[in-house]
Amino acid sequence: MPAERRDTTRRRSNSTESTRPGRNKPSTVLYTILTIVCHRNLPVNFGVYADLFNACANSPFPLDALDDARYLRRQLAQKHQELPQVVYHTMLKALGRCGDLGAALLAVDEMRERRVPIEASTYAHLLHGCVDFFISSRIS
Predict the structure, then answer these.
(1) Quick one: which of 12, 43, 59, 116 has the most CB atoms within 10 Å?
(2) pTM to 2 decimals?
(3) Tens digit of pLDDT for each residue in 66-88?
């Protein structure tokens, strides 16, 4: 009788596979690309920052994405750059969707202090993030 063969094919398990350390998350991949761009001294425009915040907002890993969004916000604060309205809007959406509503409101206060126009679209992004967070917390 032949020896029993082990099944060596890799099986996907949704419950443990997505939370395993070292998994390539969308925001982590973008941060890696941003690091490479910065080390090569290539210019980084505000569209890149907006895309990074957007990747955090759309990430299936909200806790990791929240850490990434907070890190990016601290980096931008250290550079003392004047951010355009688009970056603030994606920041509000990312912070709201990931669950840090206090930081999202602080970002609106920062917009007011820096005289960035606060319009209806600003409130729409803020509410969008808050509503998404509220709905996802009620489902869980």
Answers:
(1) 59
(2) 0.74
(3) 998 998 899 888 888 889 999 99
